[in-house]
Amino acid sequence: MVDIGTLSLIILLGMFALLAIGMPLGFASAFLAVVTLMLKFDASLLFGDFGRGPLSVLGQAVYRQMTNYVLISVPLFIFMAALLERSGIARDMYSSLNVWLSRTRGGIAIVTSIMAVIMAAMSGIIGGEVVLLGLIALPQMLRLGYDRNLAIGTICASGSLGTMIPPSIVLIFYGLVTETSIKALFTASFLPGFMLATFFILYIVIRTRMNHSLAPLPPAEPGDPDGSDKGLMFLGFLSKFTLWAAGVLFARAVFFTLTGANAVREGQDPIPLGMVTDIPWIIGTFAFALILIQFVVGRERTSKGWEMGKGLIAPIIVIGVVLGSIYGGITGITEAAGMGVVAVFVIGLVRREMTFDIVWDSLMRTLLSTGTIIWVTIGAAALAAAYTLVGGPTYVANLIVGAELPTMGIILVMMVVFLIMGMFMDWVGIVLLIMPVFLPIVVRLPAEEIGFLGHVDPRYIPIWFGVVFCMNMQVSFLSPPFGPAAFYLKSVAPPDISLTDIFRGFLPFIALQLCALSVLLIWPPIITIFL
């Protein structure tokens, strides 16, 4: 029988060795799970009473993961991302954003970052975003003479924002494994996600202002509106969209009123923007937007602004369907993913862009991506169960706590472990393997000692740690040698752009990600402010 310390070392070295020779993570984890039990227990105990011995723990762990209802949302979100990538919705969104910022220094890179945020809020899939931005934005930036490193870094860093911005697949998996409210995780990650996107945009603005050669301005097109005129057109676009949105909300509130669905009942939450008391505010918003169109912007400017910005309508509808159904209390995460797929499909049909080939190709991509995730989940769940059975989490907890480090010292050690593991391992494996060990330790730490500016409510420690973990995984998508964003971009980049060039472009953005991670560690209330 091997002691738990030696067993832990064997698992760690075995994992790196198996990954180094090219064995897929799912199979490597499953193989080590069986090896762990064989080293700890007698082989006859494992196989002699098949189905009831220690080996049955692996089957139970895998079954528990595979039968979790929320897991269904993962292939649905992947399918939605694939449909968005193949249809013209994302292309038209990029064109509309480009209209407003084309004459701004570094405008194409800023448009790329904003588009990445919108794409993240629609699907939460990282690989598809990087590929899509690589196909749409990279040729445009290179054609206009943008610095190659700036273009590469912007696409890959912004394309990985799906890790942080809801509906993030990483947050969904974390919630599944730790039994934490996924809705609360989504709420908590909003501000950190947009903070990171803001860091990227500010960096682009400052760098391009300091060095104009990094982002030359494109030549002016004849008939282009000037800055003030373009601003009024954008205001007209927003006002017209507000008219439509207020009209829909008014009809919805009236319907709820006539059917009695919005009656005030004890113990029942009010319908967001659907109560009788909300109707005057909706009417006021409608009237205000109408006044802006009639007396400030003008009908002609509004019409031009709508034509320039109508590519943003479909993405806004998809985001409203997915996140609105979750936060409006209409559906859970899984149903919201299904509604998002239906919304994208219907929009594609209305636009006459949804063909059988697009749907079939999207289904095949979904099958491939989901299969990879499922195999990793099976292997990692088996290894986590085996390691738990032999007392691994208790050993690691005693080892960390026994080091007599201060609370933030323990947290920083965990961050370093996440960063190192993220360089070599897929985030699914890290969630399933390491989180069951680390989270119980964090929960037992004194809440008042977590952070330097402000503290975390003990109730929200799992949520805080989940968002911090996701920010850490955000770094892992760019971290060499196995940063997946680099390989996603390489698959669609021009042949003269090497992997070395891509990783070189990452460096400033990795520094920005580490700065954002530091903010979450120094000032924890930024995560829990909306909870």
UniProtKB/TrEMBL annotation:
InterPro entries: DctM, TRAP_DctM
Membrane topology: Multi-pass membrane protein
Molecular function terms from GO: transmembrane transporter activity
Residue ranges crossing the lipid bilayer per the database entry: 6-39, 69-89, 109-138, 150-176, 182-206, 241-259, 279-297, 309-330, 336-354, 366-390, 410-439, 460-482, 502-523
Boundaries of every TRAP C4-dicarboxylate transport system permease DctM subunit domain copy: 13-524
Domain of life: Bacteria
Any single Gene Ontology cellular-component annotation: plasma membrane
Compartments, record wording: Cell inner membrane
Main localization (coarse): membrane
Keywords: Cell inner membrane, Cell membrane, Membrane, Transmembrane, Transmembrane helix, Transport
PANTHER family per record: SIALIC ACID TRAP TRANSPORTER PERMEASE PROTEIN SIAT-RELATED, SLL1103 PROTEIN
Role noted for this protein: Part of the tripartite ATP-independent periplasmic (TRAP) transport system.
Protein name, UniProt field: Sialic acid TRAP transporter permease protein SiaT
Native organism taxonomy: Bacteria, Pseudomonadati, Pseudomonadota, Alphaproteobacteria, Rhodobacterales
Gene (name only): siaT_20
